[in-house]
Amino acid sequence: MKIAKPNVKQSILGGLIALLLISIGFFSFTRNKEKAREENIKAALKEAYDKFKTLKGGKNADYIPYLAKVDSNFYGIVIVTTDGKVYPIGETKYEFGIESISKVFTLAQALQEKGGKVIMDSIGANATGLPFNSIQAIEIEGQQPQNPFVNAGAIATVSLLDPKNNQEVKWAKVQKNFNRFAGRELKVIDELYKSEAATDQHNEAIALLLKSYNKLYDNPDIALDVYTKQCSFGVNAKDLAVMAATLANDGVNPLTKEKVVDSKHIPQILAIMSTAGLYETTGDWMFKVGLPSKSGVGGGIISVVPGQMGVAVFAPPLDKAGNSVKAQKTIEFLSDKLKLNLFAARK
Ligand code: GLN
After folding, report:
1. Which protein residue's CA is at the shortest distance from atom 4 of ligand 1?
2. Which of 99, 100, 241, 256 is the most exposed place for a label (fewest CB within 10 A)?
3. CB–CB of 223/211 below 8 Å?
């Protein structure tokens, strides 16, 4: 009997064909998985939008006159994934005041310029448990700004940025940093800025009090003005989602691919978002939602899902602490539906 000798050429060819089939299989498996994920995100967004669109409750901020006039019915949600896909629904083009959400991005700039230790030593990282503009909070805990997301800490953060005593250059650097996070040139809403500047006596008092305790590191007028201007940046929900996705993507803007902040600072920023992002109700928020987030009195909230996505919601009416009622409900729903909670075990 003749035993067929294996033909070397044939075996190589067979091997290559098998490899090709396996790769095609793997490719279509990951494509299908990706497709399913996309469909899940779209369905969850639609469900959330329909569910909360007519939700009542809360009211626009009115201590800044401009904010009281914004249409309370605006509602938009955007998810931007770390691979640069954008999922919008609702009002996602209207530009509103970024307000306290801006504090996240000047913190990033300050960490980049000064490092974590300086931020810890000069400002702090603990929650106050008190409203965002509390004077009492400064007094109670050793005359410290407390953390970069209350007004005292945010004004102090701006004061830390270089250069000192040069408002123009300081502001130009702040602007540049925001533009890199958003991946486009953001503009200050002039009417909002004027409205804030005309009514910011409380923040002025905070700045002066900090100065008296040597906890403000630049001229108080400069720190306050740059802070007020950064709060008046006009952003739409997509801008905010890109900015949040940049934090989720290890500091790289997923649309422009620009590295905006060093990797080592990302966990530090997210830690403070997790302890102080929604003011005195951050504990409740983390209990329900489990995502580092930041709200602003303009009606926006951003959440960061590390390695996955940035989420942004815009809906002006606020609860008593100053957090958008609809945006909170929306993100709570999405966190549950898309299994985003950071503290849930994954295997
Ligand atoms: N500009 C506002 C202020 O300083 C920002 C506050 C906020 O969004 N919580 O009061």
Report:
1. 151
2. 256
3. no
What's the pLDDT tens digit per position in 283-314?
999 999 999 999 999 999 999 999 999 999 99
User: Hey, which residues does 311 pair with through a beta bridge?
Assistant: 79, 303
Residue 2 confidence (pLDDT): 56
Determine the distance separating the centroid of ligand 1 and the alpha carbon of 145, expressed in angstroms.
15
For residue 64, give the nearest of 318, 294, 246, 303 by alpha carbon. 318
Q: Are 174 and 230 in contact (CB under 8 A)?
A: yes
How far is the centre of ligand 1, averaged over its atoms, from the C-alpha of 298 (Å)?
A: 8
Ligand 1 centroid – CA 232 distance (Å): 9
Domain ranges in the chain are 49-337
Q: From CA 120, how far away is CA 246, in angstroms rounded?
A: 23
Mean pLDDT estimate for the chain: 94
The atom of ligand 1 lying closest to the CA of 296 is: 8
Ligand 1: residue of 133, 204, 293, 301 to mutate (most ligand atoms within 8 A of CB) is 133
Residue list, ligand 1 pocket, CB within 6 Å = 99-100, 132-133, 151, 196, 203, 231, 296-297, 322
Q: What is the pLDDT of residues 240-271, one digit of tens each?
A: 999 999 999 999 999 999 999 999 999 999 99
Return the CATH number of the domain spanning residue range 49-337.
3.40.710.10
d(CA 300, ligand 1 centre) in Å: 12
SS3 content of the chain, % helix, strand, coil (to 5): 55, 10, 35
| Secondary structure (3-state) at 10 | helix
